[in-house]
Automatic annotation (TrEMBL):
EC number: 2.7.11.1
Gene Ontology terms, MF aspect: ATP binding; protein serine/threonine kinase activity
The name this protein goes by in its record: non-specific serine/threonine protein kinase
Recorded coiled-coil stretches: 39-66
Family statement drawn from the similarity comment of this UniProt entry: Belongs to the protein kinase superfamily. STE Ser/Thr protein kinase family. STE20 subfamily.
PROSITE patterns: PROTEIN_KINASE_ATP (PS00107), PROTEIN_KINASE_DOM (PS50011)
Keyword annotations from UniProtKB, A to Z: ATP-binding, Coiled coil, Kinase, Nucleotide-binding, Serine/threonine-protein kinase, Transferase
SMART domains linked to this entry: S_TKc
Domain annotation Protein kinase: ranges: 13-263
InterPro entries according to UniProt: Kinase-like_dom_sf, PDC10_dimerisation_sf, Prot_kinase_dom, Protein_kinase_ATP_BS, STE20/SPS1-PAK
Entry's Gene Ontology cellular component terms: cytoplasm
Top enzyme category: transferase
Binding residues annotated for ATP, in chain numbering: K42
Taxonomic source organism: Phyllotreta striolata
Length: 397
């Protein structure tokens, strides 16, 4: 694994408490002794993240190329045994998703957040970069209310000769129709995700949040775009409608949306400090107030922290049938899952229906789902136990 990064070493840092989970590992708060600056240190076990190394490299590369006050700042990275440590700007205000746990946002707050996200997107798009995973969980705030985009594990790079992409990447509820359809797409896919995020910020969750994510993929393609209903102002509703036009050619760019009436009325960032203070008070009174020292952190403590929203990454080609190693391979996998689905009781019909809908919308999804499941289980329980489980499934026991 070769990375051209600023010179950073373990001796430069003092590691403090565990503060959360990122897309690939645990995140700790720390101090950079060279500058006395508070930093975030993301620690990734490369032995357990073999399938994700390309995405990790991509995130580091994208962040190292960015220089914007609206993008999380990258300070450097270093290797310690099998652990990769990525040092980034510490954003102590939490994510927008965190802040919503303490209660809904007012339009005033939403306008500020969306304005700064648009400024971040405008910068990225000018640099021919796509974020591809815009959602509240990936919008971070500093303790002073500064808003920044984070989590670039699935970001994409365009070029002068390649102006569109066609990979299936993102988080289902926020994905644009053209991404799901595997059509060519560009920066406008980020604008759709921003529109869904606007509804998420207003309502506390994205549209169709109660529906199985794989079923939502088909709904996004086949149904009319979501609308912001309820007692919200006309400019806010109009902003959402512009973002959620199913024809990407009729969606405005980030630069154009920065001139929208709803965004132009956005106030100064210090008003977001009220949300941060409210969340801090809520967290101190709840069971989510988890702090763990670096030396004491274990897999169990990391796993118990609130997880960020599931993102489908570029290798999860759920709309493309992957050729098997041999003819018996796919048949065995498909038979295993069909055995599971066939044994579901009536009260689990919705689960079965969701799998069938996902397979119908994206042929090959079931095969890839089981491959991923087997791949995750194998290192944990071993080949022998895994074969026993698969044997029980095949025989219906």
């Amino acid at each position: 694994m070769s990375l051209a990064t600023p010179q950073t070493s373990e001796t430069d840092l003092i590691m403090h408490e565990l503060v959360g989970k990122g897309s690939f590992g645990a995140v700790f708060k720390g101090i950079d002794q060279r500058t006395n600056q508070v930093v975030a240190i993301k620690i990734i076990d490369l032995e357990k993240a073999q399938d994700d190394i390309d995405d990790i490299q991509k995130e580091i590369l994208i962040l190292s190329q960015c220089d914007s006050p609206f993008i999380t700042k990258y300070h450097g990275s270093y290797l310690k045994d099998s652990k990769l440590c990525i040092v980034m700007e510490f954003l102590g205000g939490g994510s927008a998703l965190d802040l919503m746990k303490a209660g809904p946002f007012e339009e005033t707050h939403i306008a500020i957040i969306l304005r700064d996200v648009l400024k971040g997107l405008d910068y990225l798009h000018d640099e021919l970069k796509l974020h591809r995973d815009i959602k509240a969980a990936n919008i971070m705030l500093s303790e002073n209310g500064d808003v920044k985009l984070a989590d670039f594990g699935v970001a994409g790079q365009l070029s002068a000769s390649i102006s569109k992409r066609n990979t299936f990447t993102g988080t289902p509820f926020w994905m644009a129709p053209e991404v799901i359809n595997r059509s060519s797409y560009d920066f406008k896919a980020d604008i759709w995700s921003l529109g869904i995020t606007a509804i998420e910020l207003a309502k506390g969750r994205p549209p169709n949040a109660a529906v199985n994510p794989m079923k939502v993929l088909k709904m996004i393609v086949d149904s009319n775009p979501p609308q912001l209903d309820g007692e919200f102002g006309k400019p806010f509703k109009a902003f959402v409608d512009i973002c959620l036009n199913k024809d990407p050619q009729h969606r405005q760019s980030a630069k154009e949306l920065l001139r929208h009436a709803f965004i132009k009325k956005a106030k100064r960032n210090y008003l977001l400090v009220d949300l941060i203070d409210r969340y801090s008070k809520w967290k101190s009174e709840s069971a989510e107030n988890v702090t763990t020292n670096y030396e004491d952190a274990t897999l169990s403590t990391v796993s118990s922290l609130p997880d960020w929203n599931m993102t489908l990454r570029e290798e999860d080609e759920v709309c493309e049938v992957i050729k098997p190693d041999g003819p018996e391979d796919v048949d065995g996998i498909r038979n295993c899952l069909n055995s599971i689905l066939g044994g579901l009781k009536d009260d689990n019909a919705e689960v079965r229906g969701a799998f069938e809908a996902a397979e119908g919308a994206c042929p090959g999804f079931i095969d890839i789902f089981v491959r991923k499941l087997v791949g995750k289980l194998q290192p944990t329980i071993g080949d022998r136990k895994l074969n026993q489980i698969l044997g029980h499934i095949k025989t219906g026991r």
